[in-house]
Amino acid sequence: MFFLGFFCSHLLTGQSTDIFRAEYLNIPENDTGIKTQRYKFLFNLPIKLNEKKDYLVTGLEYNRFDVGYSQNFPFDQSEINRFHVVDLNLGYITKWNENWNFVGLFTPRLASNFTDGIQTNDFFLNATASLWKQGVKNDKPFRLVLGLSFNSTTGLPFPLPVVSYNKRFHPNWSYTLGIPRSRFEYHPSPKHTFGFSFLLDGYFINIQNDIALPENKIGSRISLSALVGALGYQYNITKRMALFALVGRSIEQEGTIRDDNRNDVFLLNDEANFYIRTGFKIGIF
Predict the structure, then answer these.
(1) Residue 285 binned pLDDT confidence (cut-offs 50, 70, 90)
(2) What is the phi/psi pair of residue 72, to 5°?
(3) Rounded to whole angstroms, how far apart are CA atoms 100 and 130?
(4) pTM attached to this predicted model
(5) Residue 67 confidence (pLDDT) above 70
(6) Whose CA is closest to 26, among 9, 14, 40?
(7) Nearest-CA neighbor of 251 among 270, 268, 233?
(8) Three-class SS of residue 239?
(9) Terminal Cα-to-Cα distance of the chain (whole angstroms)
(10) Are 159 and 150 in contact (CB under 8 A)?
(11) Which residues, in sequence order, are bridge partners of residue 269?
């Protein structure tokens, strides 16, 4: 169930409400001797199609993972110290009715160490369809997202649900319930936001040159799944532009090498880690 929850976090990745994001993640070395750094860059361009306010959204997201190993493992680590994930976002937004907007998203993905160019197994496919409602109830603004999403990295032949609910229940307090993030926030002023979050993070990436493992096993994929609790701060430069930082610790974590059938064949890391993330973003809301 935890592994399924990790994949659910990727179902919402393509539904980012950011127009631009630059982000750095650091998961420091723990007792297993593994540390991870991630550099993320995202750009989405909404194009207005007509006076009905239908939009075509095109975008690109790039993630680079640098993984360091201070301990020796019984296999060649040179193939699994740098990974790349490239997403192409193609979306369509339209007003469904008086209350709801429809969002459709198609996201081809390349996820690999790219040691020998681009190969067939580097390609993954994500698609999402959701309804989005935003309004005010009892003088309290809210936002609700309901939908379905298919992600080829799950190995499941059917879509999974997408649910997210955000509400400003007090002028200085708000909460969000959903996957990949639930959070509770305090807004002392328009410029400052403090909060506590539970979030899912991780990756699922192809290894181009299979790794020979003990007991005659072969590694073809690498994955990391983490459930994190974190304290956060956001400085709002404008209504839609902000600097942010998160500092926390993983509650559950599993880094695994997998075979062609996505079975676990070698456990890399199941020890809790600190989690540090910071960046700059420009959002739709």
Answers:
(1) low
(2) -85, 135
(3) 10
(4) 0.88
(5) yes
(6) 40
(7) 270
(8) coil
(9) 32
(10) yes
(11) 255
